[in-house]
Design a protein that fits this description.
The complex is a heterodimer of chains A (about 500) and B (about 625). In chain A, α5 packs antiparallel against α6, α8 runs parallel beside α11 and α13 runs antiparallel to α15. Chain A contains 20 helices and two strands. Helix content of chain A is about 75%, strand content about 5%. A two-stranded antiparallel sheet of chain A has the order 1-2. In chain A, a hairpin with a 4-residue loop joins β1 and β2. Chain A is mainly α. Chain B has a domain of about 55 residues. In chain B, α3 packs parallel to α5 and α15 runs parallel beside α21. Classes of the chains: A mainly alpha (about 500), B mainly alpha (about 625). At the A-B interface, α11, α13, α14, α15 and α16 of A face β1, α6, α7, α25 and α26 of B.
């Protein structure tokens, strides 16, 4: 029940914050912080007592919901879910801290939306019933759209609608695939079920499997995002308020990666393998295209947004290479990008609050007045371009090294992204903090320093000790996650 | 071995301390912290080398923690000291310490002094990890780390756009090389299954690498990384611009240590390179071409630091040439002596620049021998070692390289001649610099203030001693490089005499052309040819035309993302059809009836047309 408790704490906490703010101004942020902190504490205490069960994906609670169709309120957890939920809650704290002074209108409702969105994301990472998964998928989107539409920047309505339509259309395909999957199960076994573990046992003809897989794949590729489904992201990231961008880049994109691992690879291993070549190419194109477009931008947040596309390309490339090393790399990249892009957007927000602009061309020489901020930005940029010692490097290195065995050409092309990321990263730092002094700004406040330094601490910690994460992904859990044994056999067949 | 385990981390600790306390520290506090941390590393290095590097095959290793696993192969944070890394360790900590002392005095007045010393410390730390790494991933960590520090230090005076631009250029150009290196690592791991250096050296798979030609590709990719870091053709263009950094940076990073990382990498991987004579020859060709081109470019410079930069490129060319010929020991020896005399040259040049209030143009100097006799004589010692006059350290190492070229299987007479011509050019540009700077009349207008701080002068004397006597340090690297390339029997007897005589001929030529006799006017040449050579023989323009401009053009063209057009097309269709259909909803009964009638008529006409068609 622990996951349900976390979701309830977040949701009710958000609601209480909203109502109380009306009576006592300035209380919402504290209440939100307490709610997220409390759910983080719940998660940690649960993990301390039960970490043995994380090695395989297990259901930890189940309540019948819609009996007629065999739909259950069923939650489960394993290391993958755990790490993503922990990342979500952690960035939730960051979100509250960066919103501290930025949000001035409708404060209570803002925090309600923020926490509701977090609750939805936690639900996405823990649902083991496909119908419930879809339910949470929608729950996280609505408050997110509201965050962009109400508290965003100048083109917020356009960006919010675009974000909403992209996600809705693609999740419609997923819904269709889920229903067809349940129907097939009903025909085979005679009972209705949306249970992940039941559906995983199904044997489906390869063609049907391919189409079903595509339904899921497109939904998650939009979310990831992968070329050519990425165009919602620059607008949404740029227009969202700072916490919205942090949440979008830090965790919402990860639901795409999670979906790919859990559902596309987990439910349709054979079809995924068949599709792997295309997916790997999409990953490579995303890496290069994202990096090149990032360099072309003059808007700070837009640049970081395109860089996200580039980094998520590494995840796609790694996942579809079906290599254990690359899989580890993808996991680390997910965490690394969650931390580093959140940090970059947080810094973008801090700069916006001082300069009231995101335009890199009017910036310059900020280092003279804000050296601490400059140092932090440089560190986060260095994380983005994969400086060894920070966790992003280990993620990318493992991804590429692992995938190289299977897709040498694609990896060589993807590795050019390392040059691309250096170019846009250095451009970002150089344009804003080097050169002639254009503005004098105030350096980081204590609250901002806390946000930046804790994110940097985690980037360095996992960069030097990635085993802290990878230890939980032994080969055993890998097999239950993506059925590598069968894949190995299959790949031999395909190659011969 | 605790001593080894802590060694690279003293400067890192000092970096953290300086960055956190930054402006709260006085000059004295910051200098003591930064210099003593490097001093501590140097003492540890001395202790280790003295006590444990007794024979050629001594090894000290320490395992810190497991970094991550590549399948079954562990990649560790582990340090390993053998005779090759001991040489590098000595250079990095020893020369690094002296440069830190100098820098503390040189940068005394700068408002961001602590930040400067912090970056220098971080650099030393990264460089130490590079040379002590027990596996190639950790080496790569150091490799990227020094690159970042190089970026930070070149752009230290970031408010000047030219400096920031040079810093970016250095970072991105070397990053191109780094990416080759990274791809080389992927390939090496796929073939050998490990990235630990000792595993690679003793792997049973090495034979297979030759058979499937993978050794060729791996080594070629590594050379790609090496030419980026070591500023060799074709990735050499960043080094002259990197002189925008403060002079101690040029001495430390862009002369003594970081730029020799490529040489170290190839020497480290010598077992692999020996498998592929083709790549060895490619390395030799790159070295020979670079040493000649850089030497020619040095002839036309007017900025004293740029002369030294091209000279560095050219000397690293010698090292590469030596490695390519199989003369690994001689190459590494030259790496060491070059670090001594080039650091000396840069620092004395720095002292001169300081004395002339940041004047770097040699045509605004002249006659400094009389005004700054001590510094001038120290500079002469550096020049003597650079052009390899007998009795200096440069002579020992450079002659050792040249001696092994003629009968090497992967080099040969052509390469020998290239090295000789290069030596001639070296001595011509060196003495051009000497004559312009120290002889004739003083042509500047700034008043000369003699640098007197003892911290500024003391390191120069120590480096001068090393530049002279550094050749006496015997390097026993036989345990690593067991190749002998000299075959005396087939070599003509005059080789050695020519090699020794060449620098003197160069001096004579330089004297005839450049010596500022009384009455001779010294002018900066502005002819097209001079400018072409001065700008590095057109490489910058070529790359700008072939790479930079197309990339910028593509970026600019597609700033708004073509995929977005597709999405816009869809939404345009939706909106347009929505408007069209909406326009028919007029809520006017007459209009609806008229449309209904029109529809019926059209339908009838179509039906009639069809039936008449069938009848006919």
């Amino acid at each position: 029940m622990i996951l349900t408790q976390i979701i309830l704490v977040l949701f009710i906490g958000g609601f209480v914050a909203w109502r109380v703010e009306l009576q006592r101004p300035q209380s919402a942020k504290w209440l939100s912080l307490i709610a997220i902190g409390f759910s983080l504490a719940l998660l940690i205490s649960f993990a301390n007592d039960n970490h043995d069960i994380f090695y395989q994906y297990v259901k930890i609670s189940q309540i019948p919901w819609i009996n007629k169709f065999g739909i259950n309120y069923a939650m489960g957890i394993d290391s993958l879910s755990f790490i993503l939920i922990a990342l979500t809650l952690l960035l939730g704290v960051v979100c509250v801290l960066v919103s501290w002074q930025e949000i001035t209108d409708n404060i209570g409702f803002y925090y309600f939306n923020l926490l509701a969105s977090l609750a939805g994301i936690v639900g996405v990472f823990s649902a083991t019933d496909l119908f419930l998964f879809f339910f949470f998928w929608e729950v996280m989107l609505l408050p997110m759209t509201a965050l962009i539409a109400i508290w965003g920047h100048e083109h917020r309505h356009y960006a919010a609608i675009k974000f909403f339509i992209f996600t809705q259309v693609s999740s419609l395909l997923m819904l269709l695939a889920i229903i067809v999957l349940a129907l097939i199960n009903q025909q085979h076994t005679g009972i209705w079920s949306f249970d992940y573990f039941e559906l995983q046992k199904l044997t489906i003809s390869s063609q049907t499997q391919y189409y079903l897989m595509l339904g899921f794949f497109i939904a998650f590729a939009v979310k990831l995002p992968s070329f050519p489904f990425h165009t919602w992201l620059p607008d949404a990231h740029t227009q969202a308020p700072t916490a919205g961008s942090v949440l979008l880049a830090g965790v919402l994109l990860k639901t795409g990666a999670y979906g790919l691992i859990r559902f596309v690879l987990g439910l349709f291993p054979e079809a995924s393998l068949e599709f792997a070549n295309i997916a790997v190419w999409l990953g490579v194109i995303s890496i290069l295209y994202g990096a090149k477009l990032a360099f072309a931008q003059t808007d700070f947040k837009r640049l970081v947004a395109y860089s996200s596309i580039s980094h998520m390309g590494f995840v796609m490339l790694a996942l579809f290479s079906f290599e254990q090393i690359a899989y580890h790399g993808a996991l680390l990249t997910i965490v690394a990008h969650g931390l580093s892009s959140a940090a970059l957007f947080a810094v973008a927000g801090m700069m916006y609050s001082r300069l009231h602009s995101r335009d890199l061309e009017i910036m310059g020489g900020l280092f003279s007045s804000a050296p601490v901020m400059g140092g932090m930005l440089l560190a986060f940029v260095a994380a983005a371009f994969g400086l060894p010692g920070l966790v992003n490097f280990v993620g990318e290195f493992l991804s590429l090294t692992g995938a190289f065995k299977v897709y040498p050409l694609q990896v060589v092309l993807g590795a050019l992204g390392l040059i691309g990321s250096a170019i846009y990263g250095i451009y970002l730092f150089g344009q804003s903090f080097q050169g002639k002094v254009q503005h004098q700004i105030i350096d980081l406040t204590h609250r901002e320093l806390l946000v930046c330094s804790s994110l940097l601490f985690l980037l360095v910690l996992f960069g030097l000790f990635p085993e802290l994460i990878l230890n939980h992904f032994t080969e055993y859990s890998l097999h239950t996650n993506i059925n590598l044994i069968t894949i190995d056999k299959l790949s031999i067949e395909v190659m011969s | 071995m605790q001593v080894l385990a802590y060694l690279p981390f003293y400067p890192l600790l000092s970096f953290l301390l300086l960055i956190m306390l930054s402006k709260n520290l006085t000059w004295l506090q910051a200098s003591i912290i930064s210099v003593s941390s490097v001093g501590l590393s140097a003492l540890s290095a001395g202790y280790l080398i003295h006590n444990f590097m007794i024979s050629a095959d001594s090894v000290v290793a320490v395992h810190l923690w497991q970094w991550f696993k590549l399948g079954d192969a562990a990649v560790n944070f582990a340090l390993r000291l053998d005779s090759l890394s001991a040489v590098m360790l000595g250079v990095v900590t020893g020369v690094g310490f002296l440069i830190h002392v100098f820098a503390a005095a040189y940068m005394k007045g700068d408002e961001n002094f602590s930040r400067f010393m912090a970056y220098m410390n971080l650099f030393i730390s990264a460089m130490l990890l590079l040379v002590l790494a027990d596996n190639l991933v950790l080496l790569y960590l150091g490799w990227e780390g020094v690159g970042l520090c190089s970026f930070l230090l070149i752009g230290f005076w970031y408010q000047e756009p030219a400096n920031a631009k040079a810093a970016k250029k250095a970072f991105i150009v070397t990053r191109v090389g780094d990416t080759f290196f990274a791809i080389g690592l992927f390939l090496l791991f796929r073939e050998v299954g490990s990235l630990t250096i000792t595993d690679i050296m003793t792997s049973n798979e090495l034979g297979l690498l030759v058979d499937n030609n993978m050794a060729f590709w791996i080594c070629l990719l590594f050379v790609g990384g090496a030419v980026g870091k070591s500023a060799q053709l074709p990735l050499q263009t960043w080094l002259p611009d990197a002189m925008a950094g403060p002079t101690p940076v040029s001495a430390l990073i862009h002369a003594a240590t970081m730029v020799t990382a490529g040489v170290y990498l190839i020497a480290r991987m010598n077992n692999l390179f020996l498998l592929t004579p083709q790549v060895m020859t490619i390395v030799a060709i790159i070295g020979a071409l670079t040493l000649l081109l850089a030497g020619i470019a040095a002839l036309a410079q007017s900025d004293i630091k740029r002369v030294l930069a091209y000279s560095t490129m050219s000397q690293i060319g010698y090292m590469m040439l030596g490695l390519g010929a199989g003369a690994f020991s001689a190459g590494v020896m030259h790496l060491m002596t070059h670090a001594f005399f080039k650091a000396l040259l840069f620092l004395t040049a720095g002292a001169i620049i300081l004395a002339l209030h940041h004047q770097q143009n040699m045509f605004k100097m002249g006659g400094l021998l009389k005004k700054l006799p001590v510094i001038s004589s120290l500079f002469f010692i550096g020049v003597a070692a650079l052009i390899a006059l007998p009795g200096t350290s440069g002579f020992v190492s450079k002659e050792a390289i040249i001696a092994e070229l003629y009968s090497s299987k992967t080099a040969g007479p052509w390469f020998w001649w290239a090295a000789i011509v290069g030596a001639l050019i070296t001595s011509v540009y060196s003495f051009r610099m000497v004559f312009l700077t120290f002889f004739g009349q003083y042509r500047g207008c700034a008043e000369i203030t003699k640098p007197s701080h003892y911290l500024l002068i003391m390191p120069l004397f120590l480096l001068a001693v090393l530049a002279l006597a550094g050749g006496l340090i015997t390097l026993d690297l036989t345990a690593l490089f067991d190749v002998n390339v000299i075959d005396i029997s087939t070599e003509p007897s005059w080789l050695h005499s020519v090699a020794v005589a060449t620098p003197f001929i160069g001096i004579v030529i330089a004297y005839l052309i450049y010596f500022p006799h009384a009455g001779k006017t010294i002018r900066e040449s502005k002819s097209k040819l001079t400018l072409f050579i001065q700008n590095g023989l057109g490489f910058n323009g070529l790359y700008s035309l072939l790479l930079v401009k197309p990339f910028l053009f593509l970026s600019k063209c597609n700033k708004n993302d073509v995929v977005e057009l597709l999405i816009k097309a869809i939404s345009w269709n939706v909106v347009t059809w929505h408007e069209v259909l909406k326009a028919t909803q007029t809520a006017s009964l007459r209009w609806y009836l008229a449309m209904l009638a029109l529809g019926v008529i059209i339908l009838l006409a179509v039906l009639l047309g069809q039936t008449s068609g069938e009848l006919a």
